[in-house]
Protein 1
Amino acid sequence: MTAKIRAGSWEITTLDGGGLYLDGGAMFGSVPRVVWEGCIPPDDAHRIPLATRLLLAKNADENRIVVIDAGVGDKEEEAFRERFDVRLPNGEGHCPLERAIRNSGTDPDQVTDVIVTHLHFDHVGGATRLDSSGSSIPVMPNARHWVQKRNWENGLQPNPRERASYLRPNIEPLEGTDLQLLDGPGEIMPGISVEEVDGHTTGMQTIRIEGGGRVIRYLADLAPTIHHLRAAWTMGYDVHALKVVEEKRQLLEAASAEQALLALEHDPVHPWARIIEEKGRFKAVPVSEDELAGE
Ligand SMILES: [Zn+2]
């Protein structure tokens, strides 16, 4: 069951953008396999299952329907999908994000805003689909698409380490939408602000929703799973591991102080977590959807 979570006039639900498998060693960086395999057990190919968990935030007072991140999508060819074992939710077929939005009672044309944390394929691929002529086109054509300017530039001129993650058919079609290139942190609509972090990739943004005494933070790849809510656990994919450590230290402090509800985009089991301080150390505890639905 997907809980409806309220934060002031915002009503938030999760969307299933589909699952994928990534190399466990790459996901856990310098953490030894004997340690991480107890957290998420790998398959025979050393890969671990991951979610792409997106948010849909509706605000009737503001006439806003916001989608946060977009999953992998279905534009890629068979070989790509096999390598990452991309699983489309709700059965195979066209455009998983479009289907997830429709299942939640909204039409993709009605989406007013898409906030993209960063342009890596597993976060933005689902914002576009192939039309009948094989061209990549936006799934939510009427929406403003919010991306950090530095991430946009990075995505179009990727460094060799990230070339396989930044794919032009995922990025260029967004220029045909109302593209909002952001210059750093700030509030982008009432109750929703973004913060810029550079450790995972240049110009990634995390999202903070505040209202009615509740704070929700969408962490993207700053902490993809609950196990990564430890400052020192970085990913092999991160471009600046020590920056991630510092950015995460700040996040853990802030999330603990404001008792934030943390959305975990890639965690295969736990959609939500909170941070508590225990004997001077920060500890992540899972929060179930049932618990939130009851609040
Ligand atoms: Zn990423």
Note: The pocket of zinc ion is lined by residues 118, 120, 200-201, 221 (CB under 6 Å).
Protein 2
Amino acid sequence: MKNSIRGEIHTVDGALIIIAEINKYQLWRLITAEIMDDMGANNFTFEAWVNNEADKTALFDNLKLYVDKWGGWIDWHQCTHDEPTAQPCVIEEEYRR
Ligand SMILES: [Zn+2]
């Protein structure tokens, strides 16, 4: 089981800064994308899977700074998508500004 952090941050230029922060941790997998929201603004979205809870807690706390800076949200959940039989993902905590 991994710990997944997902997010959508209201920035495009800040994406590289956020990715650099995420890459400080040992990742099982990282998905990033740029999407356009309902208001026509471009946002940076990601899902990052880390291997343990300590990394999840540290990364989640650090990512709050970027949510505060640019707006958007992050959440985390324990994810079984690395296992043969995956369970539905249940969000544990969300941080939104
Ligand atoms: Zn999941």
Note: The chain has a mean pLDDT of 96.
